[in-house]
Design a protein that fits this description.
2 helices, transmembrane, 80% helix, DUF6747, membrane
Length: 55
């Protein structure tokens, strides 16, 4: 749990005092999008690995 809090602190501090607010919003949306894409790629890899599909 401490690791997640550390990552949260890094994420929050990365966007502190950024002046163009719309850029901050776009970067936050993009980071959530990237996290979703990475999780889907990991899911697809694990699904193929455990169900016996050939790569």
């Amino acid at each position: 749990m401490g690791t997640l809090l550390h990552f949260k602190n890094i994420y929050v501090s990365a966007f502190e005092n950024c002046k163009p607010e719309f850029v901050v919003v776009l970067l936050k949306i993009y980071s959530v999008f990237c996290m979703a894409m990475l999780s889907m790629a990991l899911y697809a890899l694990l699904f193929r690995a455990f169900t016996g599909f050939e790569f």
